[in-house]
Amino acid sequence: MKKYSLKERIVETALVLFEKKGYHGVTVDQIVAESGSSKGGFYHNFKSKDELLYHIHDVFISYVLDKAREAYDNCETPVSRLCAIIQSFTKVFDLYKPHITVFYQESTYLTGDFNQQINEKRDKYRRLIIQVIQEGQANGDFRTEVPAEITAMAIIGMVNWTYKWFKKEGPLSIEAIATIFNDLLLHSLLTEKGMKQEEVYSFLLQSQPGIK
After folding, report:
1. Are residues 87 and 124 in the same domain?
2. I need a surface site. Which of 6, 87, 154, 192 has the fewest CB within 10 A?
3. Which one has a higher pLDDT value, 56 or 3?
């Protein structure tokens, strides 16, 4: 069994309490009591409850942004970059589903510098996806009649909704769901030229016969 650090215990406790009672329905005292911490332990890790909420948001947003940058640096084509970004984006709903649930429930309470920092990372993520799509349009792999900005927002919207319905015990793994997303998007975006690339096949459902 994993042994959680004090900071991890505080975060895990806050996730449960925020989801159940809402951000303003939970006090630092409650978090301290439920996590088996102390006021000193809490404030050693977080300056305030607001910083704790920021941390919960920042964990998964930083993850998807870092993974997207890795995909851009490590993959050589717009197709492979976009598919790798979607794979890591989808995976976050398995890794950080409680964080994301609290984010959507309580994001309005994130204000000031904390809100600005989160929004800046979200904007960077969106712009990187737009850049990959535009590069695919420029080299003839992606359809130019589909606006890159709208396509990027459609991708983000489609994958984001995963938090509402994904269940670990469901019939499909998070990896299988990512493959389905990639299949849908590639069939929507690829030109005839783009579809002829050998690498495309590895991202489509027909390369994963066990997925139904």
Report:
1. yes
2. 192
3. 56
Same domain, 7 and 82: no
Give every CB contact of residue 63 below 8 A, 6+ residues apart in sequence.
Answer: 88, 92, 95, 96
pLDDT digits (tens, 9 = 90+) for 12-43: 999 999 888 888 899 999 999 999 989 999 99
Helix crossing, 78-95 with 174-189: angle to 10°? 150
Whole-model pTM: value is 0.86
Residue 1, pLDDT above cutoff 60 = no
Q: Is residue 156 situated within a structural domain?
A: yes
Tally of domains within the chain: 2
Check whether residue 60 and residue 17 sit in a common domain: no
Average pLDDT over residues 105-121: 87
Which residue range(s) make up the domain with 65?
A: 49-207
The residues with which 190 forms a beta bridge, in sequence order, are: 142
Instruction: Give the DSSP per-residue string, 100-144.
Output: HHHHHHHGGG--HHHHHHHHHHHHHHHHHHHHHHHHHHHTTSB-S
User: Is there a domain that residue 212 lies in?
Assistant: no
